[in-house]
Amino acid sequence: MSDRTGQIRSSDLLAFSTLRNEHIRLPFFLDYYRNKGINHFLIVDNDSDDGSLEYLMEQPDVSVWHTRKSYKKSKFGVDWLNWLQFRYGHNHWCLVVDPDEFFIYPFCDTRPIRALTDWLDASSIKSFSAMLLDMYPRGPITEQPYQSGQDPMDIACWFDAGNYTMTKNPQYGNLWIQGGPRSRVFFPDEPELAPALNKIPLVKWNRRYCYASSTHMLLPRGLNQVYDEWGGEKASGLLLHAKFLDTFTVKAEEELERNQHYSASVEYKAYAERLRDAPELWCKWSEKYINWRQLEILGLMSKGNWA
Amino acid sequence: MSVGILMLVHTAFGRAEQVARHWTKYGCPVVIHVDSSVKPKAYKKFVKALENEPDVRFCKRHKCEWGDWGLVAASQSAGETMLAEFPDVRHIYLSSGSCLPLRPVQELKDYLEARPRTDFIESATTADVPWTVGGLDAERFTLHFPFSWKKHRFLFDKWVDIQRFLRVKRKIPHGVVPHMGSQWWCLTRQTLSAILQDPDRETFDSYFKRVWIPDESYFQTLVRLYSSNIESRSLTLSKFDFQGKPHIFYDDHLQLLRRSDCFVARKIWPHANRLYDGFLRSPEGAIKMSEPNPAKIDRIFAKAVERRTKGRTGLYMQSRYPNEGWENGMTFGRYSIFQGFTELFEDFDPWLARATGARVHGHLFAPERAEFEAGQRVINGALSDAPRNRDYNSIAFLTNLIWNTRGERQCFQTGPRDEGAPVWFFAKDPNAQVSVISGAWAIPLFKSNLNFADIRKEAARLQKLENEQLFALRSPYAKARVRIWTLAEFIEAPMEPLQTIIDEIGPEKARRLSEAPRMTDLTGFGQFLQNLKNQGMHPYLMGDFPVSQEDTDQKKPPRKPYLVQ
Asked: How confident is the model over A91-102, as pLDDT tens digits?
């Protein structure tokens, strides 16, 4: 719809995203990543009707494509983005994030993403792990309405610090991480259904690469080796996941109707059920977000040997 | 004109230009070597940018690759140019395009002025330095290295293996003792010219051309032949990580670099605007004469290396998932597990909490729910008591609990009913202290109001389960501090084992227990066991219990708190 990919220079950092009806989130989302040094956004709009598309088309550093096709049939957007990355991402550092995901990495308050990617280049590292960290507000999630342009973490500033479990996926070599508030509140009796939280969103892209399932795992398998197996820690970040705002209840109902999500939308079914009785994700042991150093100390992410 | 700067540049020309101007502004001539693999267009632009600087020269270009002769050739050419073009220069300082002067140039000048005959070059014999990459130290000087380590790693490695097999040993030129050290040096005119104008230079050069990483050994070795006064350290602050690549400095290192009192730092991230702006300003304040002091920076980078190689004990996360046996500690800290104590003592949990100050949970792996301390549904780290959630990955549940409660000792109960408990895991964990009174599970059955047939069935089940748990705890793989008593054994003299356990947990070693937990009434228990036997179920884990206790002295003590003087 609006292809500005001609502007992309060879050293640019690119962000890829797919979205549907996220207009209210977009101003903050774009600004957040612009500040962190993303040079160009490549976005697939899946038939929004809330003005998202029009808004994106006005942005000078955004290329946007529009599709009416099924999100589910495109393997939840992976196919669209794999294609865009194949076409435009070759030899670029590419960050794949949803509009409600905010990338945190070591020293992100003082160093731009380029400092990280330069360091990764120098260390011959091609992929960077950032686990999804679900953020939520205190009190019912409908209580504090989100305003466009506002930092979502002003409202959803709480998280679960230490209830994550992981196993190794022998097929792809990635870790499969579950836990957090979604597992605790929505899936206490069916923990195996809780959504996967492992993500590898930042990759020095090559045409030969592709995401196998969302950004949870990559091919070739070597790119999934973002963890150390000999006791050490590799550097890693987090994606603060500001899903649980007041916009969420509407979304959950709508998504359930569309039935376009993973595993027959089992996740959204669980949400919709729980959300009807005004749920609270917050608990006495929830941790309030301060900065990346706090997350590092808690052991959710690591500086590795970046100093 | 006491100091001349040699600068090896291959990228970030804008920054190199900025630094070169800074040096010349304060009276230090600069000779720049540009890697010959830099494209002519970029090279010309760079030369043009520095055209108007009279004290900047460009020297003959060489192709530079890490670990290759090119860097030495570049330093030689730059050094020759410096010696020839600037006869007043006394000290020659080798730096790179990503080096940044941290202290006013005048301070460096004064420092060197005060040490006119000293050569600053890190130079150590191969036996004394641990920081070699690729496992080659002495062999750097005795093998041939025709293949690039970066581009042809396989051939490089194979060639080394072949030479080792053939026992190849190169002849080191006469009078040369191999030394190594940081490639960034500062030499006097006398020493440098002696090296460069040596009649035997041809011999040395052809020898070092085939040495592995000559830029860390050529000058470091030859300086030993000529220098009268070597300070074996580099004036350039340069830290290396565990892969042998230099650490990079960013804006947030500003204060740290400032306090280091080093003259020059490498490597600086080209986009670190605050660093370049901050350190290339004209100096303000008094000139300092302090010695460089990189200790604090050393610590930070040493910590980073440790984090990368050893990691945080007991942490399992997205970028640390150690294979079995490589955890550097399976859990964060010590914890205690009790089996059979709550069955035997009526107030064991509160008593234990009082005696040790530790956090005492119930049966964390009970089938109904995780019995956190004080009946909490969720505890530290938002760990939930939901049994399915817990059993989904019981090892992670335990390691998370111990990690989340860092700095506080955890105690919890277990038993044969807690089938989900990761017994093998904690049996193997040296951090675990496991105390078991075997057969104590029969006490609740004895006190229960069930039909005897059900009791018999349950007893058989529990005995089988506990037996399996004991098997793990007694296996040769068990690394935990395991103590097992039979019930009969334990009630004979309960205070002694309790004291031992508490001593091991408690911070105050000397304290004697003044108060004992209250033991439950076991009158008739022997008969109860006999009844089980009579029904064909043979309880053996509790040890030998007399059928009737009435006659023995067992009767009185159990009901009375034990007081130990």
From this structure: 999 999 999 999
Q: Do B386 and A184 touch (CB under 8 A)?
A: yes
- Is the Cβ of A169 closer than 8 Å to some Cβ of chain B? no
Tell me the domain boundaries of chain B.
3-134+180-197+226-309, 335-559
Confidence of residue B556 (pLDDT cuts 50, 70, 90): very low
Of A192, A286, A305, the CB nearest to B304: A305
Instruction: State whether A304 and B252 contact (CB < 8 Å).
Output: no
In this prediction the ipTM stands at 0.93
A123 touches B: beta carbon within 8 Å = yes
Residues of A in contact with B382 (CB under 8 A): 160-163, 181, 184, 283, 285-287
Nearest to B384 among A163, A166, A233 (CB): A163
The per-residue pLDDT for B40 is: 94
Q: Which long-range contacts (CB under 8 A, 24 or more apart) does A261-265 make?
A: A261/A71, A261/A72, A261/A76, A262/A76, A262/A195, A263/A193
pLDDT digits (tens, 9 = 90+) for B365-409: 999 999 999 999 999 999 999 999 999 999 999 999 999 999 999
Two structure tokens written together for B479: 């690394």
Helix pair angle (B452-474, B525-534), 10° resolution:
100
Segment B180-196 shows an average pLDDT of 93
How many CA atoms are closer than 13 Å to the CA of B257, on its beta-carbon side?
28
| List of chain A residues whose C-beta atoms are within 8 Å of the C-beta of residue B315 | 233, 299
pLDDT range class, residue B142, cuts 50, 70, 90: confident
Spatial distance between the Cα atoms of B285 and B143, rounded to a whole number of angstroms? 53
Chain mean pLDDT for chain B: 89
Interatomic CA distance for residues A180 and B515, integer angstroms: 42
pLDDT at B132: 57
DSSP state of B103: S
- Taking residues B458-485, report their average pLDDT: 96
d(CA B385, CA B369): 6
Q: Which two tokens stand for residue B6?
A: 């040699």
Classified by CATH at the fold level, domain B3-134+180-197+226-309 comes out as: Spore Coat Polysaccharide Biosynthesis Protein SpsA; Chain A (3.90.550)
- Residue A233 CA to residue A300 CA, distance in Å, equals 11
Judge whether residue A131 has pLDDT over 50: yes
- Mean pLDDT, chain A, whole residue set: 91
* In chain A, residues 277-306 whose CB comes closer than 8 Å to chain B: 283-287, 299-306
Report domain A5-245+283-297's class: alpha beta
Q: Which of B255, B317, B332, B379 to mutate to test the interface with A (most CBs of A within 10 A)?
A: B317
A182 secondary structure, DSSP code = I
**CATH 3.30.1360 holds for B335-559:** no
CB B358 within 8 A of CB B349: no
